[in-house]
Design brief:
It contains ten helices and eight strands. By secondary structure, the chain is of the alpha/beta class. It has a six-stranded parallel sheet with strand order 1-2-3-4-5-6. The protein has a two-stranded antiparallel sheet with strand order 7-8.
């Protein structure tokens, strides 16, 4: 099981009441009740408690990577690199999966340096499929790449109309059902990522549902439907490539 890191660890704003009770009185808080620029020592303590909570999964061999989905205001700069390297050290032997959310990390100027940095610190890069935009800074370009033994792809949908909708929910942002044509674009890149790694994962967001095309009175989970589509496309193309059939 891959686990998303708690927001304070990825430098997201978090409400003070989401912290353990004994830590709430010692953290700085802004006027909206959110933890405000906590010292690194406190982040370190939160890291330790977060990792301790994952021990049952770790002990049973069921813990995959820990997803560090950075907020869109964390841009490529020395301070960001320093924090990620520090956070990687805090994780110890657990795998770090890093998803960038600001395009500065993967623009022409910084792309190679960003990927080389993740490889150097032993972190896994997360490839993202998302809406295409030349202007939205919180939409990164799709750059299939591997920086560790793990290839990891997240399919966020391509709903540009709702991506930055003011007051919109996660379900609205990720409300998207991929077509066979769109997922078919990923067959060859996924093959290449899998060949360049020891293990490969592809994930869809499970926030939204759609009308069932085969039953107008019913609804389907977009994540489950798209996952089944992608598996079928990968199987069909594997059969075609080998010239064989399977039962």
């Amino acid at each position: 099981m891959h686990v998303k890191a708690y927001g304070l660890l990825t430098r997201h704003p978090v409400k003070v009441e989401t912290l353990p009770e004994d830590l709430r009185a010692v953290v700085p808080v802004d006027e909206r009740g959110r933890v405000d620029r906590p010292p690194r020592e406190l982040r370190g303590e939160v890291f330790r408690r977060f990792l301790a909570a994952l021990e049952p999964l770790r002990r049973d061999g069921k813990l995959g990577g820990i997803l560090f989905q950075l907020p869109p205001y964390v841009v490529f700069k020395d301070a960001s690199l320093d924090y990620l390297e520090w956070a990687r050290g805090e994780l110890g032997g657990d795998e770090m999966l890093v998803e960038f959310r600001h395009r500065s990390w993967l623009d022409d100027e910084h792309r190679a340096e960003s990927l080389a940095f993740l490889e150097r610190i032993g972190a896994s890069y997360v490839t993202v499929d998302a809406p295409r935009s030349d202007t939205a800074k919180n939409l990164v370009p799709t750059v299939p790449a591997v920086t560790s033994a793990t290839a990891y792809v997240r399919f966020h949908g391509r709903n540009l109309a709702t991506w930055n909708k003011r007051g919109g929910s996660a379900a609205e942002r990720f409300d998207y059902l991929y077509t066979d044509k769109e997922l078919g674009e990923w067959v060859e890149p996924l093959r290449e990522l899998a060949a360049a790694s020891e293990r490969a994962f592809a994930f869809f967001n499970n926030n939204a549902s759609s009308i069932d095309p085969d039953n107008p009175l019913g609804r389907i989970s977009q994540a489950a439907a798209n996952a089944a589509q992608l598996r079928r496309l990968l199987d069909v193309n594997r059969i075609s490539a080998t010239g064989g059939t399977q039962a």
